[in-house]
What we know:
Number of helices: 12
Largest sheet: 8 strands, parallel
Distance between the termini: 34 Å
Strand order of the largest sheet: 11-10-9-8-7-6-5-12
Order of helices and strands: EEEHEHHEHEHEHEHEHEHHEHEH
Helix content: 25-40%
Shape: globular
Amino acid sequence: MTNDYRFEFRPYQRRFLRSLTTNHGKWDIREGIILRLTDESGKVGWGEIAPISWFGSETLEQALDFCRQLPEEITDEIIFSIPDELPACQFGFESAWEWGSGKWGNEFFSMPNAQSFSALLPAGEAALNQWETLWQQGYRTFKWKIAVNAIAHELKIFESLIHTLPAFTKLRLDANGGLSYEEANLWLRTCDNLKANPEVTLEIEFIEQPLPVEQFQQMLELSTSYETAIALDESVATLGQLATCHQQGWRGIFVIKPGIVGSPSRLRKFCHQHQIDTVFSSVFETAIARLAALQLAAELSQNNRAVGFGIDHFFEQEETWLQSLWNDL
Length: 329
């Protein structure tokens, strides 16, 4: 039996408090779409489409076109047959469906505390001034963007960061595919040397996506050449890519961004089947997609790694934005 839902959507824009700088460039405004599905009994499910086209998902425009061409009444069948070229739409519609169908139970799950979140530090020297505030908020795992400035400069900042962060902090280095093969080796060597130094009490958890997506074989080779772990991120942005990298022998860490990976039900199936080592990570979504993403993280995280959702400090806190988004139109 198929169910019918009344379908409504609203585009949104949220400005970052300061530009987010990565190897992909500067990002000032997060744009996305909030979905609402209402079933025949009046139960409401919320979903969110939060694409990042330069990361491998559809564009916002493609997502909007898809939403605009749908009828006002949609069925389960429509929700579960969204094409793979629209992974952020798959996630948004399917999670709205799960929310509305009570699949998560009433409690959802206990929200993780700051200790189980990884907080994103700003690129460059700004990291040296910001970790402390985040530490006081309870964060113990930090992620720092590299491959943004010249490597010699970054290694210097890294050296300072290593010596200022408290003992037993975990640090993740995220290159967003921006290092050359030589630079990746230099970073991995530097991290291995730190690991071997008994005076360093901080843990470099992994280097994330050191090389561009097309250099998969080199990353595979690097992952067996050094002690320091490598995590794939851009290489495994969507379910199709995830499956391909696994097939080609990747057994390191997979960074999964639920907001753009595609269908939650198919992701569950893949993770249960292959028992992969995952880190779940944000796409700078709102609380709606975050709830759905953390639900998946709670179900599917194998190795108790901190989830990459410590990003609240990048936006103004706007408690009522959802009501106003819905009512202002």
